[in-house]
Amino acid sequence: MKFIHAADLHIDSPLRGLDAHAGAPVDRLRGATRRAFVALIDLALAQKVDFVILAGDIFDGNWPDFHTGLFFREQLVRLRQHDIAVVIARGNHDAESQITKQLPAVDGVHVFSTDAPETVIREDLGVALHGYSFPQRSVTHDVVPDFPRAIPGMFNIGVLHTSLTGREGHDDYAPTSVEMMATRGYDYFALGHVHAREVVREAQPRIVFPGNLQGRKSNETGPKGCELVTVLDGRIASAEFVPLDVVRWHRLELDVAGVATLEDLARTFHRAVSQLTDGAADRMHAIRVIVQGESPLNRVEAEQPGTVEAAIIAALQDMEGPEIWLERVKTTLRTPIDRDQAALRTDAVGEVVALVNELMADEDRLAGWIARELGGLTLPPPLQELDPTAADAQAMRAMLNDAEATVLAHLGAIEADGEQA
Hints:
Layout: E1 2-6, H1 26-30, H2 32-47, E2 51-54, H3 67-80, E3 85-88, E4 109-111, E5 118-122, E6 127-131, E7 155-161, H4 178-182, E8 188-192, E9 198-201, E10 206-209, E11 225-232, E12 235-243, E13 247-255, H5 262-277, E14 284-294, H6 297-303, H7 307-317, E15 324-334, H8 339-343, H9 348-360, H10 363-374, H11 393-411
Parallel strand pairs: 1-2, 2-3, 3-4, 6-7, 7-8, 8-10, 13-14, 14-15
Antiparallel strand pairs: 1-11, 5-6, 9-10, 11-12
GO molecular function: exonuclease activity
Protein name: DNA repair exonuclease
Keywords: Exonuclease, Hydrolase, Nuclease
């Protein structure tokens, strides 16, 4: 017996905010969730699996029209034409109350009940699938105690959309524990909701979040795909992760400590991107670059803001290989000086460095200083989200670093070679 376990497809997710990125491949990015699902169906057909488990959040919410539902149904029909069954557990985004439009059912596709956990038995395969669908977006109680116990002599699989005991970045839905799941006596728990792949438990039962099928934004990084599981004689013989994403997101933290020239920056960037995309040339890569470290480039950037970003973009233009889109370039460079010595100076440079040191050491003082100095700013509506007084501590430190670099550059504190003036 062989099956696929996938979750969090978010087909036709709107991916808000892309239009604000000049040059963003909007159509490619918004179509990625569909193409990843087609790749899942292709894999199921190629592997001749017996069934596919979809553990919630197939959609991102109610369809704006029938095109999303019809596309999904069309792919299910492809599976049924090859006698591959499908079981679905609805999650918080595609709960029964969320998806109001209806399409004719597809034979061989079973959606688990929203009333209580239920069981689907395949005698021919020796498998029992136990699952539950969200009736509404928020399910705040543990439903696992209501799941039936394992059926003796069968390979038992539980299917649920859940946050378990909580996962960073994810709301708490259908909370439960590994210990509670183990009481059911199942062989495998197919989970959904958490977008990062995680093997929660290796066996008795094997518990897996496969992650979402396609990353949709800069914090959903790395390979995305599904689990392909083979069962022999009632035991898991193999379980492998299969990447299916068509656009892969990355966060590249580019350490340029000691990098003194834009040419050196380009070479550093080329090496890092080549390593990042190695073995995945068939995909488009969306990369957020954070240029960081103590470098003389800080002076260049302070004197002419945007220089580092332009250099990175130019370096990408010179590269051959997979298709790459730079989602964003951030600079968090630091001034390469002896801060302790600089703070002792009796001139303006010493005054600036000493003040920054004091503010960096005290979050509350930093927030108060920014509120006092910048609280009177009136920003136009498109820029109100950039209000410095509403930023978190990390963003405030980054702003202070940038401000210090600019002031020191204008004071002539740092020479091009990084030596103190």
